Amino acid sequence: MTTNQSNKLVKGIAYHGNRILRHVETDLRDIVNHHFNLVVHMFSHTDWDRHRSIMKEIVQMTEDHGLDVWIDNWGLGGPPGDKSHFLAYYPDSHQVYSDGTVDPVRACLNSPHFRSFTKEWIDVVQDIGGKSIFWDEPHLAAKSMENGKPKVWTCYCERCKALFRERYGKPMPATFDEQVEQFRIWSVVDYFREVTAHSHQKQMENIVCVMLGGSYGINLDSIEAICSLDSLSNIGSDPYWSHYPEAHPYDFVYERTKRNLEVCEKFNKDHNIWIQGYGTHKGREEEIIWATDAAYDAGARNILVWGFRGSESNDYRAHYPDMTWNAIGEAMRRISDRHRDEIRRQRLAGLK
Questions:
Q1: pTM over cut 0.90
Q2: What SUPFAM superfamilies does the database record attribute to this sequence (predicted)?
Q3: N or C end of the chain: smaller count of CB under 10 Å?
């Protein structure tokens, strides 16, 4: 089992959609009262352009409440999060699909301009007080799937095709095969090798969360590829069960948390496991509690929820944010109590 080094139970919540400081102050108190000790703040390109000094105050306010902070690269290169504003400046850096169409909102990870842009963003994150960067769901895109594999996929731009030819000595095929899959994984890992080296040199912590599905380049099945990076200290995933209609929340989260922790233990990395608190349907709020228990039972001690008050500031919000927020708080209280009891038993056993 891999746990964080201090035996601290990390309980995090994603927070975005508000930059009004008096509301942030109220929300931070609410977050503390719901048993959290960490906030993941989004820092998008818009925040960089329009809210840089405000975000510096928000980071300081969060820490003044005793909460740790992770800074999320929200939408920097496109989804998840905002559409990439970077592409307005570098239109030749779009991801391109294998059918030749251009993805309008996603940046190519092999674009040297995008890599330079990311490093500039890291510099600004440090300036606003960020110490830990949360790299949110790095991925390449796919339009469609066939037998669990991408059928129409990125990136097939001229830059990526040249890199593929350089690595494999032949043109990149337009049909998905094992070498294309390897190249996509390499592209994601190589991007993070370069940009996390930059933040690591600045003494910043690098944390990454990968998705589950087979269309993304890096997912829970290929997570080992990114674990080899010394500059990444914490590798996680987000087993969001509602995307899988037949899944039971407890079983689904438990099994995938165990898989995540096994990989982290193999590579001596810390972990982060995300619980779905958005898009919660009426009557399913209790599933958040089951899922959180499952992550804890599987051995996770860095457990986070997306997002604050059921993500009520977004279109993908919970149907009933108050009910969802109550369930989220109860889930955090339960694992807090369990963790205290666990530490007490361990200390008591050592005194006998």
A1: yes
A2: (Trans)glycosidases
A3: C
